[in-house]
């Protein structure tokens, strides 16, 4: 079943009278539970596409459906609500809240975004921290964690709201090889257990190799797509 | 909400030095304002008490137009016995009135048999007068603390100038409203300390002597001074009394009486108003300190946490919650500053109270400063600080709430 469908999606940025076409009529579809990577050089449009899928931005043209919702029609608040209930985010620089512990960072979306009662929050958070192997580091703040540990916490935060989709923009760019591979394996394991769809943007060959479905972008145009040895298809 | 407060609290102490500096500013501001209010309030309260309890009373009733002509003490504008009875009937019906006194005020000549000068006198009923202005008798610095028939209380400066002392005989001569001159020998029973304000340098005689000197068939009263039970309700009681007397009209259909609070009767009210104005300016300074310091901190907080704001917005935090998070941060800072400031103010004011600082005002020396601040005043100042803190945080909070997540996430 398709979770994301893009039909002739385009995005044009206007800056000081200059128009830049970041995406030029891109069409694609992503199945539920897929492990997908958008690859391409800097400026190819992969981050733009992820922003559109993540309802952080709106397409200039075409149609983009995420979990059955036409995201172009969402207002600012509705988009935030949609993200909070359907999408998890993993960032290149982890983007944990520095004043909160690992536990509190994972708990944050449940409190502020989903208003989950305290009685059920603890179970959910502990479950995710255990899944990413961070149970014993839960009381530490981000500045006391290594890069890999931070990214594990970020993954737990992205998954704690049980999103259908996790978007990860260059998730391994700031990690060493072993840690990056461990993080990728962890994400794949979680995908297998929870059937969560993972979509990455990257130019990291390690991720490219691990992706099951690969889309290659160049100058805002989708050049190649298809299976990459995994279970999804394009 | 509890979790938002926890996050806001931690964010505040992310930059400890900056937060502590800002808190110090707020604390000093609160301390300064409450201290100023307590000291000036004490001074004001004491002076108002001195003036009202020494001679003015809390309110006065005159015949309409008397106050405008009070410098000449016009006997033709005194209240007739019938009018006085009406006033007394009203006053006796009002439970808020603690006491009142009737006065015949007149100007005359004061002679020690070798020298003569002019004098302003009050003919009073001693019992009623003392109940209404209880600090009158303590102003008698020499002689018996009483006002008896055939005796006169002479103001200190006049006694010195005329070289009279307690026990001396003097003559008071006055012209009555018909133009007839009369005099009476009186014994100096006491020397009175001067007080600040109109009437503060008047002499006192018994009302019967005033009636004799002015050759009145019945006492015609110049003014009725009133003391109320609760000074804090002055304006309520004034309104009630004025309403009760406003129905009395003369033959021309104009009001017979005029009622005034001490504020209209004493020039000290101008000083009291200036103190209030200064207090207002000090409060405005506090508002400015809180506004600028908190706004500065919050602007910096938003600027330094742009990526963080982008992150929380991206993961689905609603703009209104981002707004609330920053508003709570500002509110917390204001509230912490207000609480610490209030506690320190209480301690400082208690210490000032305990130190028994004395001061002089005019001819009154050795007045003890008794600064106090009530919980309502502290709550008001704290409320102002917290309100201004929220106000100061609003613009930075709004900026954070409206931030575009993509731009914020890309901020370096």
Query: What is the average of the pLDDT values of chain A?
Result: 88
How far is the first residue's CA from the last residue's CA of chain B? 30 Å
Q: Any idea what the shape of chain A is? A: globular
Tally of contiguous helical segments of chain A: 7
Q: Please state the second-level CATH architecture of chain A.
A: 3-Layer(aba) Sandwich
Largest sheet of chain B: 6 strands, mixed, barrel
Protein model, in words:
The complex is a heterodimer of chains A (234) and B (412). In chain A, 35% of the residues lie in helices and 29% in strands. Chain A has 234 residues and is of the alpha/beta class. Chain A has one domain (2-227): Rossmann fold. In chain A, helix 3 packs parallel to helix 5 (147-159) and helix 5 (147-159) runs parallel beside helix 6. The two termini of chain A are 12 Å apart. Mean pLDDT of chain A is 88; it is low at 230-234. The model of chain B has no long low-confidence stretch (mean pLDDT 90). In chain B, a hairpin with a 4-residue loop joins strand 2 (97-111) and strand 3. Chain B contains 13 helices and 12 strands. Chain B is elongated and about 100 Å long. By secondary structure, chain B is an alpha+beta fold. Helix content of chain B is 53%, strand content 20%. The A-B interface holds A 51, 54, 56-57, 76-77, 80-85, 87-89, 91, 93, 95, 97-100, 108-109, 111-114, 157-158, 161 and B 3-4, 7, 10-11, 14, 307-308, 310-319, 321, 405-406, 409.
């Amino acid at each position: 079943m398709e979770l994301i469908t893009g039909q002739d999606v385009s995005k044009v940025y206007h800056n000081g009278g200059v128009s830049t076409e970041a995406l030029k009529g891109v069409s694609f579809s992503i199945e539920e539970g897929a492990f997908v990577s958008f690859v391409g050089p800097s400026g190819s449009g992969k981050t733009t596409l992820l922003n559109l899928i993540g309802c952080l931005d709106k397409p200039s043209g075409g149609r983009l459906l995420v979990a059955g919702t036409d995201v172009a029609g969402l207002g600012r608040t509705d988009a935030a609500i949609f993200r909070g209930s359907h999408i998890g985010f993993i960032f290149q620089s982890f983007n944990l809240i520095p004043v909160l512990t690992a536990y509190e960072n994972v708990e944050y979306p449940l409190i502020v975004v989903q208003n989950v009662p305290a009685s059920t929050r603890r179970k959910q958070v502990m479950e995710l921290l255990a899944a990413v192997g961070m149970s014993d580091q839960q009381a530490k703040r981000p500045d006391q964690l290594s890069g890999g540990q931070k990214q594990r916490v970020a993954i737990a935060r992205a998954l704690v709201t049980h999103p259908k989709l996790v978007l990860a923009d260059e998730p391994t760019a700031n990690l060493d090889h072993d840690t990056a591979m461990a993080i990728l394996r962890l994400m794949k394991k979680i995908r297998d257990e929870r059937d969560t769809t993972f979509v990455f943007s990257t130019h990291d060959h390690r991720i490219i190799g691990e992706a099951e479905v690969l889309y290659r972008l160049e100058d805002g145009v989708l050049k190649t797509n298809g299976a990459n040895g995994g279970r999804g298809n394009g | 909400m509890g979790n938002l407060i926890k996050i806001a609290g931690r964010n505040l102490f992310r930059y400890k030095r900056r937060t502590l500096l800002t808190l110090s500013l707020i604390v000093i501001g609160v301390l300064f304002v409450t201290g100023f209010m307590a000291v000036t309030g004490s001074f004001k309260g004491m002076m108002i008490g001195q003036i009202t309890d020494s001679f003015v009373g809390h309110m006065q009733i005159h015949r309409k137009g008397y106050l405008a002509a009070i410098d000449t003490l016009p006997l033709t504008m005194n209240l007739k016995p019938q009018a006085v009875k009406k006033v007394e009937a009203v006053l006796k019906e009002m439970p808020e009135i603690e006491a009142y006194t009737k006065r015949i005020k007149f100007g005359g000549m004061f002679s020690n048999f070798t020298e003569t000068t002019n004098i302003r006198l009050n003919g009073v009923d001693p019992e009623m007068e003392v109940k209404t202005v209880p600090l009158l008798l303590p102003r008698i610095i020499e002689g018996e603390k009483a006002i008896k028939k055939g005796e006169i209380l002479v103001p200190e400066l006049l006694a010195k100038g005329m070289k009279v002392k307690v026990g001396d005989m003097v003559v008071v001569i006055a012209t009555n409203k018909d133009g007839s001159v009369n005099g009476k020998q009186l014994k100096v029973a006491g020397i009175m300390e001067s007080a600040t304000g109109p009437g503060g340098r008047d002499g006192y005689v018994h009302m019967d002597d005033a009636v004799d000197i002015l050759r009145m068939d019945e006492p015609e009263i110049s003014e009725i001074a009133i003391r109320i039970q609760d000074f804090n309700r002055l304006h309520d009681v004034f309104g009630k009394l004025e309403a009760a007397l406003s129905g009395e009209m003369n033959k021309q259909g104009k009001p017979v009486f005029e009622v005034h609070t001490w504020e209209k009767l004493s020039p000290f009210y101008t000083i009291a108003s200036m103190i209030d104005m200064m207090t207002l300016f000090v409060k405005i300074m506090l508002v400015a300190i809180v506004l600028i310091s908190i706004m500065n901190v919050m602007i910096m907080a938003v600027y330094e946490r742009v990526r963080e704001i982008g992150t929380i917005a991206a993961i689905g935090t609603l703009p209104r919650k981002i707004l609330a998070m920053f508003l709570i941060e500002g509110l917390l800072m204001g509230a912490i500053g207000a609480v610490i400031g209030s506690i320190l103010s209480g301690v400082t004011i208690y210490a000032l109270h305990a130190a028994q600082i004395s001061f002089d005002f005019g001819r009154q020396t050795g007045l003890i400063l008794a600064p106090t601040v009530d919980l309502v005043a502290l709550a008001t100042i704290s409320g102002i600080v917290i309100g201004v803190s929220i106000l100061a945080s609003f613009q930075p909070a709004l900026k954070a709430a409206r931030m575009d997540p993509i731009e914020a996430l890309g901020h370096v």
